[in-house]
Amino acid sequence: MKHSLILGAVAAIGLAAGAASANTLEDVKAKGHLQCGVATGVPGFAFTDADGEWQGFDVAVCRAVAAAIFGDPKAVKFTPTTGKTRFTALASGEVDMLARNTTWTFSRDTDLGFDFVGVNYYDGQGFMVRKDLGVTSAKELDGATVCIQTGTTTELNLADFFRTNGMSYEPVPIETNAEARQKYLAGACDVYTTDASGLAATRSTFEDPKAHVILPEIISKEPLGPLVRHGDNEWGDLVRWTLNALIIAEEKGITAANVEEMAKGTNDPEVNRLLGAEGEYGKMIGLGKDWAVNAIKAGGNYGEIFARYIGEETPVGLARGLNAQWTQGGLLYAPPFR
Amino acid sequence: MTNTAIDTSNMVVSDEVAVEIVNMNKWYGEFHVLRDINLTVNRGERIVICGPSGSGKSTLIRCINRLEEHQKGKIVVDGIELTSDLKNIDKIRSEVGMVFQHFNLFPHLTILENCTLAPIWVRKTPRREAEEIAMHFLEKVKIPDQAHKYPGQLSGGQQQRVAIARALCMKPRIMLFDEPTSALDPEMIKEVLDTMIELAQEGMTMLCVTHEMGFARQVANRVIFMDQGQIVEQNEPEEFFLNPQSERTKLFLSQILGH
Amino acid sequence: MSNAKSVAFVATKMIPPSPPPSGSVGPIHWAREHLFPTPLNALLTLVSIAFVLWLTPEIIRWAFIDAVWKAGSLAECREIARAAGVEGSFACWAVINERFNQFMFGFYPSELYWRPILAFALLLVALAPVLFAHLPRKMLIFSAVYPFLAYWLIWGDSLWAPLSAMAGFAVAYAAFRALSGGVVQLGLAAAAAAAGLAAVLWWLFAASSAAEAMQAVLPLSIEHVESAKLGGFLLALILGVSGIAMSLPLGILLALGRKSDLPVLKGICVAFIEFIRGVPLITLLFVASTLLNYFLPPGTSFDLILRVVIMVTLFAAAYMAEVIRGGLAALPQGQYEAAAALGLDYWKSMRLVILPQALKISIPGIVNTFIGLFKDTTLVSVIGLLDPVGIIAPMRADSNWNGIVWEFYGFVALFFFIFCFGMSRYSMYLEGKLKTDHR
Ligand SMILES: Nc1ncnc2c1ncn2[C@@H]1O[C@H](COP(=O)(O)OP(=O)(O)OP(=O)(O)O)[C@@H](O)[C@H]1O
Ligand SMILES: N[C@@H](CCC(=O)N[C@@H](CS)C(=O)NCC(=O)O)C(=O)O
Ligand SMILES: [Mg+2]
Questions:
Q1: Residue C157's beta-bridge partner residues?
Q2: Considering every ligand atom, which ligand is closest to the CA of B28?
Q3: Pair A312, A165 in one domain
């Protein structure tokens, strides 16, 4: 009820906004910085470091876009948004784009008036339980109490999963990841369910992570990606291709360290086109020749960003899995740059 | 009450008119509270108004400084007619002092500050001078040593005397009293009445709502009896008390003097 | 009168005073009277004491004895604690240590920390004469200038901007002087309105160009710090102090307006108060943060903090108005009449007689509203402003510290407690000081 009210309001606002700001790129250039909506705090994806700088896997997308436009990864300001405020903030023009674990769904793309420009993390919903419960499969969860974040896709998936398997559960509704963590550890629920990346990140912070297991079942598709307002296709293209540039860079072995070098010219015409050594591709999205060089220099290619913030070497410790390049058996498949 | 002989040498009534009320009527909603009031008060006159409760005495004197608004007729105070012109109203109010039944001192200010407030802010008297004037009148009402206390620390009689001093500090040309003693214990009534008598002796124009008939006899030169919103009878005090004309006056006097 | 003989009595000597019997004074008596008067009360006392005794050592152990003060991450904290043989939970204050500056200033540039610190120190100077009546009244001049000075210190940029904003008041005063001329009562209201209009016109059209012109002639500016960099307690104080400072006068005007005889004015005030009170603060904040964008002409950049300050002020002012209206209603009619009878006009009688008393009666309610407002500033975290509560989430998401909860919230709670407790003690001091009636 509450949920649909909010969605309705957001949709109405989205309609009104479509007309309001027609040329986001020009507005952004005039402002001198990009305004990027991020999560209020998800380990590995969006957080502040000791110097008060925003960091994270999602934040890196914002920085890459800022660098592509201004040549400066710091020309971006962040607006922390919660699961509930994220769509209003984007629709109203408070932020220029949103890069915070948001699942690309039909109604968000169409009815709410947004455009998802791609996927930066293929996720899926999982379950975490205490090891001593002896549960090995989600199919054994009949009658369990489940901690679940309201207003998310996970809430709906959960209901679907239990219904199709003829099981019952008792939901414990919560607002944020942090609240879920406390409730779960305090035993207020047997199971915590959210995006598997979130589960891994959360488990990594437990005193004794080994006492908890993430069950093998992944019950949904959660493609998380950046989104922009519907109606300004040029702006959408710019964000889409910045993300693609990072993915292509990994595929082609372009890194933050060697990008300057490679920009001088290589044997690979696609790399040359991307890095501006050949053709005038930057112009097509209203940017300079070296836009992709700047975007890659900002935080490295997709793989570098992944490894730095959420990879296996980090406390979050996620394997590439579905997020490997298509050449490695993953789903990352950027369209050709030509 | 006070039966000592009083000095009447200053108590002369001039021909100059201080307050003139012509055919004045007032309603509270549908209720006709004052009916065809005609009253002329000359400078130096001391008028006592009496009458049963609810007869409109308070309303009448409150109309004179427009704490209440009249709807018909005319009131002229000190040559200025009372209309809705705010400027005139404030002017008249600063010339007309008023003393209330419940003193209405300002509890958050000291006695001295109560007395200097209006002179400083309305008359623009310098503070120094205002304080000197205030001390003068506080001495007159015989409580100079309480100047730095707060009203809550004074007895009722003392508070009422401060209220009189406060009004006098504005150097008013007319003083209105609305039952100044009826909230007081008997011993305090005397100290307040003495102060009022002294004031009368100095020739102040006074309109007094009171049931202190001793006071009326001693200082009033006219007593007005009101009932049901109209002036029923007025006369010099001796005649009024000894020889009332109207039946209602007789009944009223028999009730208040009866015991 | 009948048996007058038998009741006649004359005292033959005066009885000297003697000390009270033991058992009716002293600590034992006090304890019996206050702690164990009845079996039920005795039981309650014992249970409460037991509860406190059980809880306090645990808290002290958690927060002090077993706590870790210096570490680089939660994992390191745990290592240190285990090495020291701590079992069970303990406080890892290292995180507050590391993020202290963020809690204080948000993302304010660290080399400029002296500016907000100076602004805070000057705030104390500016508040002193307002809070303590025995300080020289001349200090109030500084208090009046302070808001502009603080704005300049915190946001920086050209000094001419706040100066020209201040000049708006000078413009209003000059216009008022020129237009009022005599002491015409109606003329006064009109002159005041015209003066207000002049000031608004100045602010809208002349102020910024005047500032630019002056800046061109005599550049006087310090480094600009944008609103997005403000956060933590600095932000909470900016919102709280400006909301408190502005909501009181606005609340007074609304309360007077609500009691006014002019139907239009009264209607506006009633509608405003009822509307604001009927809407949750969080809604107003959402309006400020997102919906306002739709109503403003495109391209206007209207600082988010400014918008929030306005909303918070309006919200508190509506409550303030009702608190003050209660105070006004509690005053006897005689006070209004006595003031009028002395010839004081409306504004003077309000300022000198009615409001001092009404405000005094309302002190507990006013301070209550202040405290509520100050705590409500934490709601801005939902619109993405990083106040002390909002700034916790991104800190906690840092992999180094993820998992810490109590330390963050405990620290913020302590901060709010100190300020709110201070306000409540001050209000008690003030009540005692202003108690002049029944001594
Ligand atoms: N504000 C008012 N609204 C309506 N009726 C009023 C109001 N004030 C007074 N009255 C009525 O007007 C009448 C006259 O009141 P007023 O106070 O003048 O009487 P009074 O002669 O002074 O009586 P008392 O001796 O009891 O003071 C009374 O019947 C009273 O109920
Ligand atoms: N992907 C889902 C769920 C996203 C979700 O709930 N993510 C959590 C973290 S795993 C979150 O964003 N939390 C933000 C917060 O706690 O502030 C959606 O888009 O609805
Ligand atoms: Mg009366």
A1: C222
A2: 1
A3: no
